[in-house]
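Lab meeting prep.
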Amino acid sequence: MGLLALAFAMIGTGATAQPQAARGSTIYRCGNTYSQIPCENGRTLEEAAPSSAQKAREAQAQTDRIQRRADAMAHERERLEDRASGQRPAIFEHPQRQSTTSRVDEARLHKPHAPKRQTAGGDFTARGAGEAPAGKKKKKQRLD
């Protein structure tokens, strides 16, 4: 039983361990994935040519320029943060308001008010709808 399993394992491994060149350099796009195995409704893509040494140097030079610029921006930000940390918080104080009123106007504005009139009994009396306070309204006279 063990020999049979070993034989199947060796056959399966041999089938999947083929060198890449034997399969070819065709790439298939199957929906959102790429595969070297053909699939249903898959499109054939050509394998990109290996990048030349010149293109690799140009790409590395561009990456280095971007990294230097990012480092410079980070250094500038840190410098500005250090300078700002030494400053006090920004507080806007309003200037003292200058008085536009004269003394006569101030005296008139701050004069004491007359006290409120008290009700007859001194207490509040709730009345129903349509009831008039006693003695306040005069009845209309009829013209007959």
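Slide two material, second protein:
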Amino acid sequence: MFLKCSCRMMFLVKFRLIRLLEKMLMLFLLFPCQVVKVILTVLVFRRCPPNMVSEETDGNALLEQGTTGARARLKLNPTDWRTLEKVHAGLGHPPNEVLVRVLKYGRARPELVIAAKDWNCLACKVNKKPKRAPPSMPPITYQLNNVVGLDVIFIKDHAGNTRPCLNMVDWGTGFQIVVSMNDREGESIRDAYRRNWRSFLGVPRVVVIDQEAGFLKGVFPASLSADGAEVVVTSARSPWQAGKTERAGGTWKDVFNKVCQSHPLYSQRNFEEILDSTSVACN
């Protein structure tokens, strides 16, 4: 009787094992990648020592050690904070997610990675813009100097005065030149356009302008007509018609303001150099 029960139990165990192996084989055939990931995860956790602590746990523990300020919580010396500031500025003031990813790829210390997650940059905070709506259509591509947009933007010079600048953007390639002017009159606009765009790129086929007084009155529209360029004037109620020029000008001003935060303006020559350097960086 005992032998019969034992044989029956052995048969049931073998039957269940066979059924289990069949199910595992079916899962492996249907979902091979998922099964391999599960097996590797189990093996890794089995090999990890019990006292193993992740970077996130180390960072949370470091954050809970102190009570006042990020420097006290993370126990970073001033050299580490200067290093973070240099890396953030050298990368062009990227978001914190990008800064964390760069530090991880560079095998930085866990303290620096955790500090980068909550990094606060004064220049980024001052120049933070609201999120833009997604575009409804893809941008149209043109050849170089086929369509050029002109716009007047305003920035602060070394003396703290508001200085008008001519923003010139090629819609096909995104090439941009920003030149400072003494005023917004048509003669100043014509001189800036003639010396910095037409002299080496030639006359564009189409020039897109808004209803700025200097664009519509004076010598500038007459010079465009004499060159044979087609002039398109956007509507005051439809600023999106010159959206590419407006967005390029806004991006240029953001970069200019960030550069001025790190390198204050102290002379007219320095102002012109930073003006040119910003255009080079945007291009």
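Talking points for slide two:
The first strand starts at residue 147 and ends at 156.
Residues 40-73 have pLDDT under 50 and may be disordered.
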